[in-house]
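Handout, section B. The chain below has 280 residues.
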Amino acid sequence: MGEKRSTGFYILTAIFIAFLVFLYGPVITIGILSFQGPTGGLTFPMQGTSLHWFQELFRTQMVGDIWGSFQRSIILGLTVMVITVIFSVGAGMAYRKKFFGSTPLFYLIIASLVIPSILVSLGVGLIFSQLGWEVHWSTSGLGAQLTWTLPFGILIMFAVFNRFDKAYEEAGRDLGAGPVQVFRLIVLPIIAPSLIGVALFGFTLSYDEFARTLLTSGSRNTLPLEIFGMTTNVTTPVIYALGTLTTLFSLLIILFFLTFFVLSQRRRNKKGSDAGKGLV
């Protein structure tokens, strides 16, 4: 006889299932409706099934600049990712030792997380306008998104370096390694999994960001802004097909980083195993 489940267990299970439905139900619904037939609309019931609306995405659209906005989002996401990783690692290394003004600087960095995103977007846009600079997705949009991704990346690296054992670095220096060699050959391989997490976090936050880009992208939309604009003009399931493809693209990016992480771990383990055999 198995152990009898308590009433609380079933209540928590029901709450968890409801949470999953609330979280993934809209995405699944959009995915299903994107396979409507040529005469299908934006709601159920389904009018046949086909790939018609996916094919429409690759034809010239009367409204919107889908592929141009997609390209801009990719470029912006990759740029944000690289800058976030570099600055997060630098900040993590710098904060390993206390320096003058470190505490106020830390709170100044984190403060952008508690400021409403739309206010950040408005403020950055106003600053660029007042200084006479062009409001553009690659300049003001980049700056606005970094106020969102950098604090998260820095917090992650703080947690990583707080658990980092300095004995590894000391051993490298005892063997004659310089500061650059210690960082490249010892520190970087150890924190590599966390760097992959920061990179993935930075890219996905940028790729999906709406509010902080709304007033800082200028005349050229990123993909989230383009999709929002299409909701007021497009009345066919083509917008659902676009949503399905962008969701799949996000999942592929996550899968790519996870695969890279697994392969890197296996390579490191193999090197360690070969080194151990050589000692024997």
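Note. The first helix runs from residue 7 to 33. Compare this with the example in section A.
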